[in-house]
Amino acid sequence: MLKRSHKALNLAGYQGGASILTVALTALARRLNEGAVGTPHLLPDVTSCGESAASLFRSIEAGERHIGYMASGYLSARVPELAVLDLPFSVQDRQAALQALDGYAGALLREAVARQSGFQVLAFWDNGFRHVSNAVRPILSPEDCRHLVIRTLDSGLYRQALESLGFSAVTTDVKDLVRVVQSGEVDAQENPLTNLLTFELWRHHPYVSLTGHFFGVLLLVCPRAWFEQLEPAQRQELRDAVADATELQRISAARQDTAAMIRLRSLGVHIADQASLDMAGLQRATAAVRQRFLSRLPAELVSAYLPALAGEQIS
Asked: What is the pTM of this model?
């Protein structure tokens, strides 16, 4: 039996205490406490200390921190294979997507990340379907998106997809999200419903459209060099703890979608569901962007994660 390690094990995230990501990261820290991997020290929200999410990612890759999460889109410029997770309007069944990530598709993406960055992917977390909120008007069709500035995360694919809908897309770090929404620097933003509550964006955005344009996947990561120097028994302890935290996170994510919708409606937010949206028009508007990125992806990966799209690839 391995002895307890007193080496610091630094975990960090970029959302507040109410976030399901923080809850899952806290559960992971507790599970690892008094174990052989290290003694956990958790900073739930680096932005509360004035640090950016981008700085958090850099600190993990550099080995200054050991475990954290990041939206896959933040890394797709360096790891192009991650674009398979962000093709617009490509995922309707979250369980099928997560099962693929637990299988061969996930194995291919882990290898791609390890080959092209200093990260080791420990798990794929459920960040929910992303929807659009705004301060101006109900968004039902691409025409309604025109002339609106929308905030999104730092992903070229995200920006191109949103601009194809008619938005003017801008990027800010998550630490600036509330500020740009509150100040009116942006008219709209896109996020899972739970984030409208976590960041209290509903106070400034009375309109929400359930576009589901992306299914958000979070990478739970650690420094690859640190992971590789762990003893086999330590790696197994870490994998077991991650598996438990991942199960909790995914269950919470699915439940929060429903709970968040109910809560937002009770707060007076106008929610346009997909039955009232021109979904065909939204999908047509983004089709060229989807095809462009789809054509660049390895066929094996597309077949593993999005088998319905495998026949659409054009080399």
From this structure: 0.93
